[in-house]
Amino acid sequence: MAEVDQSAAVSDGSSNASDVVNGTAGRLVSSAEGTALAYGSLLLMALLPIFFGALRSVGCSKSKNASDMPETITSRDAARFPIIASCTLFGLYLFFKIFSQEYINLLLSMYFFVLGILALSHTMSPFMCRLFPANLPNKQYQLLFTQGSGEGKEEIVNYEFDTKDLICLVISSVVGVWYILKKHWVANNLFGLAFALNGVELLHLNNVSTGCILLGGLFVYDVFWVFGTNVMVTVAKSFEAPIKLVFPQDLLEKGLDARNFAMLGLGDIVIPGIFIALLLRFDVSLKKNTRTYFYTSFLAYIFGLGLTIFVMHTFKHAQPALLYLVPVCLGFPMLVALIKGELTEMFSYESTDEVLPHSPRLTYFPTVSGSPASLANSMQSFTHSSPRCRRHTPSDIYEESSPEEESSKEEMTESDKDK
């Protein structure tokens, strides 16, 4: 999902349904109220997965379920990401030019059908836990596929679920069938929102520097593929998959059968969203009971996306949203950190520390220079100066005891031997 359309441009209403699906020409005129409703709905739908995905990202690293563990993005991953995304995007563009669009979209629809059911089910799970009646039995199930027999048996699939998960899967499957049969924009948005929320929740940047590398690289990627070529817009309109959020501008005139869509790529939600989620985890690590950096970046995202929509509507041309989102999402929180004197602390924060909260960490780094003997002396003084980090052995305890305590211990030992 993310690699297919990392940050598709925001598109205006200059295309009808066939534009969005088949890339043909045409134009439907929408009222000013319908256009405002479409843009406002896109903005709201973009904010929901970022807000709730960021909140869920704080606790998902502490989950005991392996499927809920986050995937950490390192600086190396961030540097390669725009290159991989560019190759994937251009490959899809060539596929749509060479092969039949109908068969490609059929294959991709089945792929995203399965992914969408799993993503929507995972999104619904916390809400189902609250809505599920306590008096109903919650039975446990296990789906197990193995290969071989005896000691050489290997597990291929080992999926554990309960009644609540089963209900979520059934509801998600109904939405999936609806999407496959009708390709309705509501079903598309349900899957798209689930993909975006799962992306923000489960994709973790390891530090702010990695976030700067990722957002900076995709900033160039987005601008090039939208302004430099027609590749991004062509793929976004031709790609029949829930990789974008759409909302009709003629909803007031035609209801749910409206066809004149404005759209927003999921990459414009997920990419800034994982950076905003990182800042929320940084806020939590400060233990000040404030969410300054999270709310700052969240408001910056609203401003950036609103600016994108304004420019797109003014110039009647699809816009690379990251062109406006990246500077504000990076600049505003760093300006606040600079004013508060926490810029160094922000860049030294490592999100991986939250994944293993009980792992030992060296919180004091002695400055050492000179011979190995000075290193040993420095480490020895560090050990004595940090009583919380020092591990007392039985010999240490006896060495620190007074002579009277020593004699009493010897008498106790003799009496124990007599017994």
Walk me through the structure.
Helices cover 65% and strands 8% of the residues. The chain has helices at 17-22, 32-60, 75-98, 101-131, 163-182, 185-202, 208-228, 231-238, 251-254, 267-286, 292-315, 322-340, 343-348, 352-355, 372-385, 394-400, 403-418; strands at 71-73, 140-147, 154-162, 203-205, 244-248, 261-265. The strands form three sheets. The protein has a two-stranded parallel sheet with strand order 1-4. A hairpin with a 6-residue loop joins strand 2 (140-147) and strand 3 (154-162). It is globular. The model is unreliable at 1-9, 12-27 and 355-406 (pLDDT under 50).
Give a brief rundown of this model.
The protein is mostly helical. Helices cover 65% and strands 8% of the residues.
Offer a few descriptive terms.
17 helices; single chain; 65% helix; globular; two-stranded antiparallel ribbon; 419 residues; 6 strands; mainly alpha; two-stranded parallel sheet
